[in-house]
Amino acid sequence: MAVIVSNKKAAMSRNLVLLFCLLLIISFAEGKQLGSIGFGGLKAAPRAPRCQKVYGAKLGDTCDGIIQKFKLNASHFSEINPNLNRDSIFVGQWLCIVGTAK
């Protein structure tokens, strides 16, 4: 009878370890921390801009022209389009014209 009890305890311990490992893997995959486990020294990445309205660039469009066309603030336009190369936009490129930077 003692063998069965110890096997149940071993199985329970093994299941707890497997559950902990699964939670740890999910935590790393999701980039979140479980309690004090994880990379505490790393800072979270800044939040990405949120765009409510986009404009598809047309032939002849420039960033300055789009800023004037939609009466936008140039610095805000740059903040809501952080990966934009202002010197070379292309036809069909989606540009955020209404959004929040943070």
Automatic annotation (TrEMBL):
Organism field = Pyrus ussuriensis x Pyrus communis
Q: Tell me which UniProt keywords the record has, alphabetically.
A: Chitin-binding, Signal, Virulence
For this protein, the record's PROSITE patterns field holds: LYSM
Q: Does the keyword Signal apply?
A: yes
What lineage does UniProt assign to this protein's organism? Eukaryota, Viridiplantae, Streptophyta, Embryophyta, Tracheophyta
- Signal sequence interval, chain numbering: 1-31
All copies of the LysM domain together span 53-97
Q: Does the keyword Signal apply?
A: yes
Recorded hits in PANTHER family, A to Z, give: AM15, PEPTIDOGLYCAN-BINDING LYSIN DOMAIN
The record, for CDD domains, names: LysM (cd00118)
User: What name does UniProt use for this protein?
Assistant: LysM domain-containing protein
Extract the InterPro entries matched here. Answer: LysM, LysM1-like, LysM_dom_sf
Q: Which domain of life is it from?
A: Eukaryota
